[in-house]
Amino acid sequence: FEKLLAFSENFTYQSDFDESDIRNQIMTYFKVGCNFSPPNVIILDAGDPPSSDSAVHKCLKMYENEISIGNNDYINVVADEAIFRRGISFCKTNNKIKMILGQWHTSKDMMSTLITIFSGYGIFNMAGILGVRFLDKLEKGVDFRATSKVLELIWVAVGLAIHLYAKKKEQSLDDILEENKLIKIWYLYFQWASYWRAHWFGIRWGIFDLQHESLKAFSPLFPIAGKSNYARSVTHHIYCIENNSRLRAMLRVAPSVNLTNPGHFFAYDEALETFGVKFVKQNVTRIPTDSEELKLKIKATQLEKERTDMLICDYIGDYVQSSKPHNIQSRKEKIWELVHQLINAFESENPLKNPIFEFCNNLNNKGIDQLVAAGPRKIHIQWKHTRTRLSDNKFCAAIINKREVFCKCGQKVILDNDYDEKRLNEHSRNSRCKINNQKRQLGLPGLFPVLPNPKKVREDLEDSSPPPPPPSPPSFPNKPCPGLHSEQIVTYINRTPATYGGARRREVIGKEMFPNKFPNKLPFNSKKLNKEEITDFNQQMIVESEWFIDRLGKKN
DNA sequence: AACGGACAAAGTGGTGTAAA
DNA sequence: TTTACACCACTTTGTCCGTT
Question: Where is the segment annotated Disordered (predicted)?
Protein backbone atom coordinates (compact mmCIF):
# COMPACT_ATOMS: atom_id res chain seq x y z
CA PHE A 1 0.00 0.00 0.00
CA GLU A 2 2.81 2.33 0.71
CA LYS A 3 3.84 1.75 -2.83
CA LEU A 4 0.40 2.56 -4.08
CA LEU A 5 0.17 5.64 -1.95
CA ALA A 6 3.61 6.73 -2.95
CA PHE A 7 2.88 6.68 -6.62
CA SER A 8 -0.37 8.44 -6.06
CA GLU A 9 1.62 11.26 -4.55
CA ASN A 10 3.89 11.37 -7.52
CA PHE A 11 1.02 11.95 -9.85
CA THR A 12 -0.68 14.45 -7.69
CA TYR A 13 -0.37 17.47 -9.91
CA GLN A 14 -0.77 15.92 -13.26
CA SER A 15 -4.37 15.57 -14.11
CA ASP A 16 -4.09 13.84 -17.42
CA PHE A 17 -3.94 10.23 -16.48
CA ASP A 18 -6.63 7.73 -15.84
CA GLU A 19 -7.02 4.44 -14.14
CA SER A 20 -5.19 2.43 -16.75
CA ASP A 21 -2.06 4.46 -16.09
CA ILE A 22 -2.40 3.60 -12.47
CA ARG A 23 -2.89 0.00 -13.35
CA ASN A 24 0.30 0.01 -15.35
CA GLN A 25 2.10 1.77 -12.58
CA ILE A 26 1.10 -0.86 -10.08
CA MET A 27 2.08 -3.55 -12.49
CA THR A 28 5.66 -2.37 -12.45
CA TYR A 29 5.91 -3.19 -8.79
CA PHE A 30 5.20 -6.82 -9.22
CA LYS A 31 6.70 -9.54 -11.27
CA VAL A 32 4.06 -10.99 -13.47
CA GLY A 33 4.45 -14.71 -13.47
CA CYS A 34 2.93 -16.14 -16.60
CA ASN A 35 5.62 -18.20 -18.26
CA PHE A 36 4.23 -21.67 -18.00
CA SER A 37 3.03 -24.38 -20.27
CA PRO A 38 -0.70 -24.77 -20.62
CA PRO A 39 -2.09 -27.30 -18.18
CA ASN A 40 -4.27 -30.20 -19.02
CA VAL A 41 -7.81 -29.20 -18.58
CA ILE A 42 -10.41 -31.85 -18.63
CA ILE A 43 -14.07 -31.29 -18.55
CA LEU A 44 -15.86 -33.86 -16.50
CA ASP A 45 -19.43 -34.94 -16.48
CA ALA A 46 -21.77 -32.65 -14.81
CA GLY A 47 -23.57 -34.17 -11.91
CA ASP A 48 -26.81 -33.35 -10.28
CA PRO A 49 -27.56 -29.79 -9.44
CA PRO A 50 -25.32 -29.09 -6.49
CA SER A 51 -28.04 -27.78 -4.33
CA SER A 52 -27.65 -30.25 -1.55
CA ASP A 53 -24.84 -31.79 0.39
CA SER A 54 -25.40 -35.29 -0.87
CA ALA A 55 -25.44 -34.27 -4.51
CA VAL A 56 -22.14 -32.51 -4.16
CA HIS A 57 -20.65 -35.44 -2.37
CA LYS A 58 -21.86 -37.82 -5.00
CA CYS A 59 -20.37 -35.62 -7.65
CA LEU A 60 -17.02 -35.48 -5.94
CA LYS A 61 -17.05 -39.21 -5.48
CA MET A 62 -17.70 -39.61 -9.15
CA TYR A 63 -14.74 -37.46 -10.05
CA GLU A 64 -12.59 -39.49 -7.79
CA ASN A 65 -13.62 -42.71 -9.47
CA GLU A 66 -13.30 -41.38 -12.96
CA ILE A 67 -9.79 -40.22 -12.44
CA SER A 68 -7.48 -42.99 -11.44
CA ILE A 69 -5.13 -41.63 -8.87
CA GLY A 70 -2.38 -43.12 -6.78
CA ASN A 71 -2.59 -43.59 -3.09
CA ASN A 72 -0.66 -40.53 -2.19
CA ASP A 73 -2.15 -38.28 -4.79
CA TYR A 74 -5.25 -36.28 -4.48
CA ILE A 75 -7.37 -34.09 -6.67
CA ASN A 76 -7.61 -30.45 -6.06
CA VAL A 77 -11.09 -29.36 -6.83
CA VAL A 78 -11.59 -25.71 -7.38
CA ALA A 79 -15.12 -24.66 -6.79
CA ASP A 80 -17.20 -21.66 -6.05
CA GLU A 81 -18.48 -20.87 -2.64
CA ALA A 82 -21.65 -22.94 -2.58
CA ILE A 83 -19.91 -26.09 -3.71
CA PHE A 84 -16.88 -25.40 -1.62
CA ARG A 85 -18.99 -25.07 1.49
CA ARG A 86 -20.67 -28.39 0.86
CA GLY A 87 -17.45 -30.03 -0.13
CA ILE A 88 -15.76 -29.26 3.15
CA SER A 89 -17.57 -31.99 4.98
CA PHE A 90 -16.75 -34.40 2.18
CA CYS A 91 -13.05 -33.63 2.37
CA LYS A 92 -12.98 -34.48 6.00
CA THR A 93 -13.83 -38.07 5.28
CA ASN A 94 -11.95 -38.40 2.03
CA ASN A 95 -8.37 -37.34 1.67
CA LYS A 96 -8.32 -37.82 -2.07
CA ILE A 97 -10.25 -34.69 -2.72
CA LYS A 98 -9.10 -31.31 -1.60
CA MET A 99 -11.17 -28.24 -2.14
CA ILE A 100 -9.84 -24.93 -3.25
CA LEU A 101 -12.10 -21.95 -3.16
CA GLY A 102 -12.46 -20.47 -6.59
CA GLN A 103 -10.98 -17.05 -6.31
CA TRP A 104 -12.97 -15.44 -9.02
CA HIS A 105 -16.18 -15.97 -7.15
CA THR A 106 -14.52 -14.73 -4.06
CA SER A 107 -13.42 -11.61 -5.81
CA LYS A 108 -16.93 -11.09 -7.04
CA ASP A 109 -18.28 -11.39 -3.57
CA MET A 110 -15.66 -9.07 -2.23
CA MET A 111 -17.08 -6.44 -4.53
CA SER A 112 -20.55 -7.18 -3.43
CA THR A 113 -19.41 -6.88 0.16
CA LEU A 114 -17.86 -3.53 -0.49
CA ILE A 115 -21.01 -2.27 -2.12
CA THR A 116 -23.16 -3.54 0.70
CA ILE A 117 -21.08 -1.89 3.35
CA PHE A 118 -20.66 1.43 1.66
CA SER A 119 -24.08 1.62 0.13
CA GLY A 120 -25.21 3.69 3.05
CA TYR A 121 -22.39 6.10 2.62
CA GLY A 122 -23.02 7.39 -0.86
CA ILE A 123 -21.31 4.95 -3.16
CA PHE A 124 -24.29 4.97 -5.50
CA ASN A 125 -24.18 8.70 -5.87
CA MET A 126 -20.57 8.43 -6.88
CA ALA A 127 -21.40 5.74 -9.35
CA GLY A 128 -24.07 8.00 -10.69
CA ILE A 129 -21.57 10.76 -11.26
CA LEU A 130 -19.42 8.32 -13.14
CA GLY A 131 -22.32 7.72 -15.46
CA VAL A 132 -23.56 4.36 -14.35
CA ARG A 133 -27.12 3.87 -15.40
CA PHE A 134 -28.27 0.69 -13.81
CA LEU A 135 -27.61 1.14 -10.16
CA ASP A 136 -29.76 -1.76 -9.08
CA LYS A 137 -27.73 -4.09 -11.21
CA LEU A 138 -24.61 -2.66 -9.70
CA GLU A 139 -25.78 -3.62 -6.27
CA LYS A 140 -26.46 -7.18 -7.23
CA GLY A 141 -23.19 -7.48 -9.02
CA VAL A 142 -24.83 -8.93 -12.08
CA ASP A 143 -22.16 -8.00 -14.50
CA PHE A 144 -18.78 -8.73 -13.12
CA ARG A 145 -16.80 -6.58 -15.47
CA ALA A 146 -19.01 -3.56 -15.16
CA THR A 147 -19.13 -3.74 -11.42
CA SER A 148 -15.44 -4.18 -11.02
CA LYS A 149 -14.92 -1.36 -13.42
CA VAL A 150 -17.10 0.99 -11.46
CA LEU A 151 -15.59 0.04 -8.15
CA GLU A 152 -12.15 0.50 -9.55
CA LEU A 153 -13.03 3.92 -10.88
CA ILE A 154 -14.43 4.96 -7.56
CA TRP A 155 -11.39 3.57 -5.85
CA VAL A 156 -9.09 5.58 -8.06
CA ALA A 157 -11.17 8.69 -7.61
CA VAL A 158 -11.33 8.38 -3.86
CA GLY A 159 -7.64 7.72 -3.61
CA LEU A 160 -6.84 10.70 -5.74
CA ALA A 161 -9.21 12.96 -3.90
CA ILE A 162 -7.84 12.04 -0.52
CA HIS A 163 -4.27 12.52 -1.56
CA LEU A 164 -4.96 15.79 -3.30
CA TYR A 165 -6.76 17.02 -0.25
CA ALA A 166 -3.89 16.01 1.97
CA LYS A 167 -1.50 17.80 -0.30
CA LYS A 168 -3.57 20.95 -0.30
CA LYS A 169 -3.82 21.04 3.44
CA GLU A 170 -0.19 20.04 3.76
CA GLN A 171 -1.03 17.62 6.45
CA SER A 172 -0.18 14.05 6.89
CA LEU A 173 -2.87 11.48 6.27
CA ASP A 174 -3.05 10.57 9.92
CA ASP A 175 -3.85 14.12 10.97
CA ILE A 176 -6.59 14.41 8.42
CA LEU A 177 -8.09 11.16 9.44
CA GLU A 178 -8.26 12.45 12.97
CA GLU A 179 -10.21 15.57 12.18
CA ASN A 180 -12.42 14.77 9.23
CA LYS A 181 -14.82 11.94 9.64
CA LEU A 182 -16.01 11.98 6.07
CA ILE A 183 -12.56 11.44 4.78
CA LYS A 184 -12.09 8.75 7.32
CA ILE A 185 -15.00 6.87 5.82
CA TRP A 186 -13.70 7.09 2.34
CA TYR A 187 -10.20 6.40 3.38
CA LEU A 188 -11.53 3.18 4.79
CA TYR A 189 -13.20 2.49 1.49
CA PHE A 190 -9.93 3.21 -0.21
CA GLN A 191 -8.13 0.74 2.00
CA TRP A 192 -10.66 -2.05 1.72
CA ALA A 193 -11.02 -1.57 -1.97
CA SER A 194 -7.27 -1.69 -2.20
CA TYR A 195 -7.33 -5.12 -0.67
CA TRP A 196 -9.89 -6.09 -3.23
CA ARG A 197 -7.84 -4.67 -6.08
CA ALA A 198 -4.75 -6.41 -4.77
CA HIS A 199 -6.66 -9.65 -4.70
CA TRP A 200 -7.82 -9.06 -8.21
CA PHE A 201 -4.37 -8.20 -9.46
CA GLY A 202 -3.09 -11.27 -7.69
CA ILE A 203 -5.47 -13.38 -9.74
CA ARG A 204 -4.83 -11.67 -13.00
CA TRP A 205 -1.09 -11.68 -12.79
CA GLY A 206 -0.61 -14.97 -11.11
CA ILE A 207 0.90 -13.59 -7.96
CA PHE A 208 -0.29 -16.01 -5.40
CA ASP A 209 1.09 -14.27 -2.35
CA LEU A 210 -0.49 -10.99 -3.25
CA GLN A 211 -3.82 -12.64 -3.79
CA HIS A 212 -3.68 -14.72 -0.68
CA GLU A 213 -2.53 -12.01 1.68
CA SER A 214 -5.07 -9.53 0.49
CA LEU A 215 -7.80 -12.09 0.83
CA LYS A 216 -6.67 -12.67 4.37
CA ALA A 217 -6.78 -8.97 5.06
CA PHE A 218 -10.20 -8.64 3.51
CA SER A 219 -11.79 -11.63 5.14
CA PRO A 220 -13.10 -9.86 8.26
CA LEU A 221 -15.41 -7.80 6.08
CA PHE A 222 -17.48 -10.78 4.99
CA PRO A 223 -19.19 -11.32 8.32
CA ILE A 224 -19.76 -7.60 8.70
CA ALA A 225 -21.67 -7.50 5.46
CA GLY A 226 -23.73 -10.48 6.52
CA LYS A 227 -22.14 -12.90 4.13
CA SER A 228 -21.76 -15.62 6.65
CA ASN A 229 -21.39 -18.38 4.10
CA TYR A 230 -18.51 -16.66 2.47
CA ALA A 231 -17.01 -15.78 5.79
CA ARG A 232 -16.98 -19.40 6.73
CA SER A 233 -15.71 -20.70 3.45
CA VAL A 234 -13.01 -18.11 3.10
CA THR A 235 -11.80 -18.79 6.59
CA HIS A 236 -11.66 -22.47 5.85
CA HIS A 237 -9.94 -21.85 2.58
CA ILE A 238 -7.30 -19.69 4.21
CA TYR A 239 -6.88 -22.21 6.93
CA CYS A 240 -6.34 -25.00 4.43
CA ILE A 241 -3.74 -23.04 2.54
CA GLU A 242 -1.96 -21.86 5.65
CA ASN A 243 -1.71 -25.35 6.99
CA ASN A 244 -0.76 -27.10 3.82
CA SER A 245 2.69 -26.07 2.79
CA ARG A 246 2.66 -28.41 -0.17
CA LEU A 247 -0.43 -26.84 -1.58
CA ARG A 248 0.95 -23.40 -0.89
CA ALA A 249 4.16 -24.22 -2.66
CA MET A 250 2.21 -25.64 -5.55
CA LEU A 251 0.06 -22.59 -5.88
CA ARG A 252 3.08 -20.38 -5.68
CA VAL A 253 5.44 -22.31 -7.87
CA ALA A 254 2.99 -23.41 -10.51
CA PRO A 255 1.27 -20.31 -11.68
CA SER A 256 -0.82 -22.42 -13.97
CA VAL A 257 -3.07 -23.42 -11.15
CA ASN A 258 -2.99 -20.03 -9.72
CA LEU A 259 -3.66 -18.24 -12.91
CA THR A 260 -5.78 -20.39 -15.08
CA ASN A 261 -8.19 -21.75 -12.60
CA PRO A 262 -9.62 -18.49 -11.44
CA GLY A 263 -9.45 -17.39 -15.03
CA HIS A 264 -11.31 -20.38 -16.26
CA PHE A 265 -13.82 -19.88 -13.63
CA PHE A 266 -14.46 -16.54 -14.97
CA ALA A 267 -15.13 -17.98 -18.36
CA TYR A 268 -17.32 -20.83 -17.27
CA ASP A 269 -19.38 -18.93 -14.93
CA GLU A 270 -19.92 -15.99 -17.13
CA ALA A 271 -20.61 -18.15 -20.14
CA LEU A 272 -23.10 -20.23 -18.28
CA GLU A 273 -24.92 -17.26 -16.97
CA THR A 274 -24.93 -15.74 -20.39
CA PHE A 275 -26.61 -18.78 -21.81
CA GLY A 276 -29.19 -18.59 -19.12
CA VAL A 277 -28.37 -21.81 -17.37
CA LYS A 278 -29.21 -21.72 -13.74
CA PHE A 279 -28.14 -23.79 -10.79
CA VAL A 280 -25.62 -25.82 -12.72
CA LYS A 281 -22.12 -24.68 -12.16
CA GLN A 282 -19.08 -26.43 -13.45
CA ASN A 283 -16.25 -27.67 -11.41
CA VAL A 284 -12.84 -27.56 -12.86
CA THR A 285 -10.33 -30.08 -11.80
CA ARG A 286 -6.74 -29.96 -12.71
CA ILE A 287 -4.85 -33.18 -12.74
CA PRO A 288 -1.42 -33.90 -14.09
CA THR A 289 -2.09 -36.53 -16.74
CA ASP A 290 -4.78 -38.74 -18.20
CA SER A 291 -5.17 -37.96 -21.86
CA GLU A 292 -7.77 -40.68 -22.32
CA GLU A 293 -10.30 -38.63 -20.52
CA LEU A 294 -9.50 -35.74 -22.73
CA LYS A 295 -10.34 -37.66 -25.85
CA LEU A 296 -13.62 -38.76 -24.41
CA LYS A 297 -14.56 -35.23 -23.66
CA ILE A 298 -13.79 -33.67 -26.98
CA LYS A 299 -17.29 -32.49 -27.34
CA ALA A 300 -17.17 -30.70 -24.07
CA THR A 301 -13.81 -29.28 -24.95
CA GLN A 302 -15.20 -27.78 -28.09
CA LEU A 303 -17.74 -25.99 -26.05
CA GLU A 304 -14.99 -24.92 -23.77
CA LYS A 305 -13.03 -23.37 -26.59
CA GLU A 306 -15.83 -21.03 -27.29
CA ARG A 307 -15.84 -19.93 -23.73
CA THR A 308 -12.11 -19.74 -23.48
CA ASP A 309 -12.18 -17.11 -26.19
CA MET A 310 -14.10 -14.94 -23.86
CA LEU A 311 -11.59 -15.64 -21.15
CA ILE A 312 -8.72 -14.68 -23.36
CA CYS A 313 -10.54 -11.60 -24.42
CA ASP A 314 -10.83 -10.53 -20.86
CA TYR A 315 -7.44 -11.84 -19.92
CA ILE A 316 -5.49 -9.95 -22.50
CA GLY A 317 -7.03 -6.80 -21.31
CA ASP A 318 -9.55 -6.00 -23.97
CA TYR A 319 -11.28 -3.51 -21.84
CA VAL A 320 -12.77 -1.51 -24.63
CA GLN A 321 -15.43 -4.09 -25.23
CA SER A 322 -16.52 -4.26 -21.70
CA SER A 323 -16.58 -0.59 -20.98
CA LYS A 324 -18.58 0.66 -23.93
CA PRO A 325 -21.90 -1.01 -23.34
CA HIS A 326 -21.99 0.17 -19.81
CA ASN A 327 -21.94 3.85 -20.35
CA ILE A 328 -18.53 4.44 -18.95
CA GLN A 329 -17.16 6.53 -21.74
CA SER A 330 -14.75 9.35 -21.40
CA ARG A 331 -13.71 7.90 -18.12
CA LYS A 332 -10.88 10.32 -17.61
CA GLU A 333 -13.10 13.35 -17.43
CA LYS A 334 -15.62 11.56 -15.29
CA ILE A 335 -12.98 10.52 -12.81
CA TRP A 336 -11.65 13.98 -12.47
CA GLU A 337 -15.10 15.38 -12.19
CA LEU A 338 -15.73 13.08 -9.30
CA VAL A 339 -12.36 13.85 -7.79
CA HIS A 340 -13.05 17.56 -7.78
CA GLN A 341 -16.49 17.09 -6.38
CA LEU A 342 -15.09 14.95 -3.66
CA ILE A 343 -12.44 17.46 -2.78
CA ASN A 344 -15.05 20.18 -2.61
CA ALA A 345 -17.08 18.00 -0.36
CA PHE A 346 -14.13 17.33 1.86
CA GLU A 347 -13.36 21.00 2.10
CA SER A 348 -16.84 22.28 2.68
CA GLU A 349 -17.97 23.35 6.11
CA ASN A 350 -20.59 20.72 6.44
CA PRO A 351 -19.59 17.93 4.15
CA LEU A 352 -22.58 15.83 5.01
CA LYS A 353 -24.83 18.31 3.24
CA ASN A 354 -23.01 17.97 -0.05
CA PRO A 355 -25.08 16.72 -2.95
CA ILE A 356 -22.80 13.77 -3.44
CA PHE A 357 -23.84 12.40 -0.14
CA GLU A 358 -27.52 13.18 -0.15
CA PHE A 359 -29.91 10.37 0.67
CA CYS A 360 -27.25 8.57 2.58
CA ASN A 361 -28.99 7.35 5.63
CA ASN A 362 -25.90 6.05 7.33
CA LEU A 363 -23.95 9.19 6.87
CA ASN A 364 -24.39 10.55 10.33
CA ASN A 365 -22.15 10.47 13.31
CA LYS A 366 -23.43 7.21 14.62
CA GLY A 367 -23.03 5.43 11.33
CA ILE A 368 -19.58 6.81 10.85
CA ASP A 369 -18.47 5.70 14.25
CA GLN A 370 -19.82 2.26 13.58
CA LEU A 371 -17.85 1.94 10.42
CA VAL A 372 -14.70 3.32 11.92
CA ALA A 373 -14.98 0.90 14.76
CA ALA A 374 -15.10 -1.90 12.23
CA GLY A 375 -12.18 -0.42 10.36
CA PRO A 376 -9.14 -2.24 9.13
CA ARG A 377 -7.48 -4.20 11.80
CA LYS A 378 -4.80 -6.76 11.70
CA ILE A 379 -6.83 -9.92 11.89
CA HIS A 380 -4.99 -13.07 12.63
CA ILE A 381 -6.91 -16.21 12.04
CA GLN A 382 -4.77 -18.00 14.47
CA TRP A 383 -4.86 -19.69 17.80
CA LYS A 384 -2.73 -18.90 20.70
CA HIS A 385 -0.34 -21.79 20.29
CA THR A 386 1.11 -21.40 16.86
CA ARG A 387 4.42 -21.99 15.23
CA THR A 388 4.82 -18.31 14.51
CA ARG A 389 4.16 -17.36 18.04
CA LEU A 390 6.48 -19.99 19.37
CA SER A 391 9.28 -18.93 17.06
CA ASP A 392 8.84 -15.37 18.29
CA ASN A 393 9.62 -16.52 21.78
CA LYS A 394 12.72 -14.90 23.21
CA PHE A 395 14.29 -18.22 24.03
CA CYS A 396 13.32 -20.15 20.96
CA ALA A 397 16.39 -21.10 18.93
CA ALA A 398 14.83 -23.60 16.58
CA ILE A 399 11.59 -25.49 16.28
CA ILE A 400 12.11 -29.16 15.67
CA ASN A 401 8.48 -30.11 15.45
CA LYS A 402 5.24 -29.10 17.06
CA ARG A 403 6.20 -30.65 20.37
CA GLU A 404 9.97 -30.10 20.48
CA VAL A 405 11.96 -26.92 20.48
CA PHE A 406 15.53 -25.86 21.15
CA CYS A 407 16.10 -23.23 23.77
CA LYS A 408 18.82 -20.71 23.00
CA CYS A 409 20.89 -22.34 25.71
CA GLY A 410 20.99 -25.49 23.62
CA GLN A 411 18.58 -27.45 25.72
CA LYS A 412 15.89 -29.34 23.90
CA VAL A 413 12.53 -28.71 25.50
CA ILE A 414 9.55 -30.95 24.95
CA LEU A 415 6.37 -28.99 25.02
CA ASP A 416 3.27 -29.73 26.98
CA ASN A 417 0.99 -29.04 24.03
CA ASP A 418 1.55 -28.33 20.38
CA TYR A 419 3.45 -25.09 19.95
CA ASP A 420 2.73 -24.22 23.56
CA GLU A 421 5.52 -21.97 24.75
CA LYS A 422 4.72 -22.48 28.41
CA ARG A 423 7.29 -25.19 28.97
CA LEU A 424 9.90 -23.21 27.15
CA ASN A 425 9.29 -20.25 29.41
CA GLU A 426 9.36 -22.51 32.40
CA HIS A 427 12.67 -23.88 31.32
CA SER A 428 14.09 -20.43 30.75
CA ARG A 429 13.28 -19.52 34.32
CA ASN A 430 15.13 -22.54 35.64
CA SER A 431 18.69 -22.57 36.72
CA ARG A 432 19.57 -25.02 34.03
CA CYS A 433 18.92 -22.48 31.33
CA LYS A 434 22.11 -20.53 31.05
CA ILE A 435 20.64 -17.78 28.97
CA ASN A 436 18.34 -16.26 31.46
CA ASN A 437 19.55 -17.41 34.81
CA GLN A 438 21.41 -14.87 36.87
CA LYS A 439 22.53 -17.43 39.45
CA ARG A 440 24.71 -19.01 36.81
CA GLN A 441 26.42 -15.85 35.81
CA LEU A 442 29.56 -16.52 37.75
CA GLY A 443 32.78 -14.87 36.87
CA LEU A 444 32.65 -11.35 35.59
CA PRO A 445 29.11 -10.20 35.20
CA GLY A 446 28.45 -9.13 31.69
CA LEU A 447 31.70 -10.25 30.21
CA PHE A 448 31.37 -13.92 29.74
CA PRO A 449 30.02 -16.53 32.06
CA VAL A 450 32.16 -19.25 33.48
CA LEU A 451 30.59 -22.49 32.49
CA PRO A 452 31.08 -24.68 35.53
CA ASN A 453 30.87 -27.96 33.76
CA PRO A 454 31.94 -28.67 30.25
CA LYS A 455 29.08 -29.67 28.05
CA LYS A 456 28.67 -33.29 27.21
CA VAL A 457 28.95 -34.21 23.58
CA ARG A 458 26.26 -32.39 21.72
CA GLU A 459 27.46 -33.10 18.21
CA ASP A 460 25.57 -36.34 17.92
CA LEU A 461 22.38 -34.56 18.78
CA GLU A 462 22.80 -32.04 16.04
CA ASP A 463 24.21 -34.38 13.46
CA SER A 464 21.38 -36.83 13.80
CA SER A 465 18.72 -34.26 13.08
CA PRO A 466 19.55 -32.37 9.92
CA PRO A 467 16.09 -30.82 9.31
CA PRO A 468 16.03 -28.53 12.33
CA PRO A 469 18.80 -25.99 12.17
CA PRO A 470 21.20 -26.41 15.06
CA PRO A 471 20.55 -23.94 17.81
CA SER A 472 22.49 -20.79 17.40
CA PRO A 473 25.38 -20.45 19.82
CA PRO A 474 24.28 -18.97 23.10
CA SER A 475 24.30 -15.25 23.01
CA PHE A 476 24.85 -14.00 26.49
CA PRO A 477 23.41 -10.65 27.38
CA ASN A 478 26.21 -8.19 27.62
CA LYS A 479 25.73 -5.82 30.47
CA PRO A 480 28.10 -3.00 31.23
CA CYS A 481 30.40 -3.94 34.04
CA PRO A 482 30.24 -1.32 36.74
CA GLY A 483 33.51 -2.08 38.50
CA LEU A 484 36.13 -2.45 35.79
CA HIS A 485 37.67 0.11 33.49
CA SER A 486 38.76 -0.86 30.07
CA GLU A 487 42.46 -1.08 30.95
CA GLN A 488 41.62 -3.37 33.80
CA ILE A 489 39.72 -5.58 31.46
CA VAL A 490 42.70 -5.73 29.14
CA THR A 491 44.97 -6.57 32.06
CA TYR A 492 42.54 -9.23 33.20
CA ILE A 493 42.35 -10.76 29.80
CA ASN A 494 46.11 -10.77 29.40
CA ARG A 495 46.52 -12.48 32.73
CA THR A 496 43.94 -15.11 31.91
CA PRO A 497 45.75 -18.31 31.03
CA ALA A 498 43.02 -19.90 28.91
CA THR A 499 42.19 -18.79 25.43
CA TYR A 500 39.16 -20.91 24.94
CA GLY A 501 36.97 -23.07 27.07
CA GLY A 502 33.73 -24.82 27.50
CA ALA A 503 34.92 -28.00 25.85
CA ARG A 504 35.52 -31.31 27.53
CA ARG A 505 38.84 -31.87 29.12
CA ARG A 506 41.73 -32.10 26.72
CA GLU A 507 42.79 -35.44 28.15
CA VAL A 508 39.37 -36.92 27.54
CA ILE A 509 39.25 -35.64 24.02
CA GLY A 510 42.79 -36.77 23.34
CA LYS A 511 42.13 -40.26 24.58
CA GLU A 512 38.98 -40.42 22.52
CA MET A 513 40.70 -39.23 19.35
CA PHE A 514 43.79 -41.44 19.63
CA PRO A 515 42.73 -44.57 21.46
CA ASN A 516 45.64 -46.47 19.95
CA LYS A 517 48.27 -44.18 21.42
CA PHE A 518 46.81 -44.04 24.90
CA PRO A 519 45.28 -47.41 25.69
CA ASN A 520 43.45 -47.91 28.91
CA LYS A 521 45.13 -46.25 31.87
CA LEU A 522 47.99 -44.65 29.98
CA PRO A 523 47.60 -40.88 30.65
CA PHE A 524 47.23 -38.53 27.77
CA ASN A 525 50.33 -36.62 26.82
CA SER A 526 50.39 -34.16 23.99
CA LYS A 527 54.11 -34.67 23.50
CA LYS A 528 53.41 -38.13 22.12
CA LEU A 529 51.53 -36.65 19.21
CA ASN A 530 53.12 -35.65 15.93
CA LYS A 531 52.45 -32.34 14.20
CA GLU A 532 49.43 -33.41 12.21
CA GLU A 533 47.85 -35.02 15.20
CA ILE A 534 48.37 -31.89 17.27
CA THR A 535 46.69 -29.80 14.58
CA ASP A 536 43.73 -32.18 14.51
CA PHE A 537 43.61 -32.22 18.27
CA ASN A 538 43.62 -28.43 18.56
CA GLN A 539 40.90 -28.13 15.95
CA GLN A 540 38.75 -30.57 17.84
CA MET A 541 39.25 -28.57 21.02
CA ILE A 542 38.22 -25.37 19.28
CA VAL A 543 35.20 -27.06 17.74
CA GLU A 544 34.01 -28.21 21.13
CA SER A 545 34.73 -24.89 22.81
CA GLU A 546 31.90 -22.62 23.63
CA TRP A 547 33.89 -19.43 24.06
CA PHE A 548 37.33 -18.06 23.42
CA ILE A 549 39.15 -14.91 24.40
CA ASP A 550 40.43 -12.67 21.70
CA ARG A 551 43.36 -10.94 23.29
CA LEU A 552 43.16 -8.09 20.84
CA GLY A 553 40.07 -7.04 22.67
CA LYS A 554 37.35 -8.28 20.42
CA LYS A 555 34.89 -10.20 22.45
CA ASN A 556 33.31 -13.23 20.95
C1' DA B 1 41.36 -37.14 37.60
C1' DA B 2 37.90 -40.46 37.65
C1' DC B 3 34.23 -42.68 39.64
C1' DG B 4 30.02 -43.40 41.92
C1' DG B 5 26.33 -42.62 45.29
C1' DA B 6 22.99 -39.38 47.33
C1' DC B 7 20.18 -35.81 46.62
C1' DA B 8 17.80 -31.98 44.32
C1' DA B 9 15.93 -29.88 40.47
C1' DA B 10 14.24 -29.98 35.98
C1' DG B 11 11.98 -32.44 32.23
C1' DT B 12 8.30 -35.42 30.46
C1' DG B 13 4.11 -38.03 29.72
C1' DG B 14 -0.36 -38.70 31.14
C1' DT B 15 -4.75 -37.26 32.86
C1' DG B 16 -8.46 -34.33 33.95
C1' DT B 17 -11.18 -30.13 33.40
C1' DA B 18 -13.07 -25.86 31.73
C1' DA B 19 -14.23 -23.03 28.03
C1' DA B 20 -15.16 -22.09 23.32
C1' DT C 1 -14.65 -31.64 19.41
C1' DT C 2 -10.87 -28.70 20.01
C1' DT C 3 -7.98 -25.77 22.65
C1' DA C 4 -5.87 -24.18 26.83
C1' DC C 5 -4.38 -25.08 31.12
C1' DA C 6 -3.23 -27.30 35.52
C1' DC C 7 -1.70 -30.98 38.13
C1' DC C 8 0.80 -35.17 39.31
C1' DA C 9 3.84 -39.09 39.14
C1' DC C 10 7.73 -40.67 37.20
C1' DT C 11 12.21 -40.13 34.66
C1' DT C 12 16.25 -37.73 33.56
C1' DT C 13 19.85 -34.61 34.48
C1' DG C 14 22.88 -31.85 37.30
C1' DT C 15 25.48 -31.11 41.48
C1' DC C 16 27.87 -32.20 45.54
C1' DC C 17 31.04 -34.80 47.81
C1' DG C 18 33.66 -38.63 49.41
C1' DT C 19 36.60 -42.42 47.79
C1' DT C 20 39.83 -44.59 44.78
Answer: 444-481
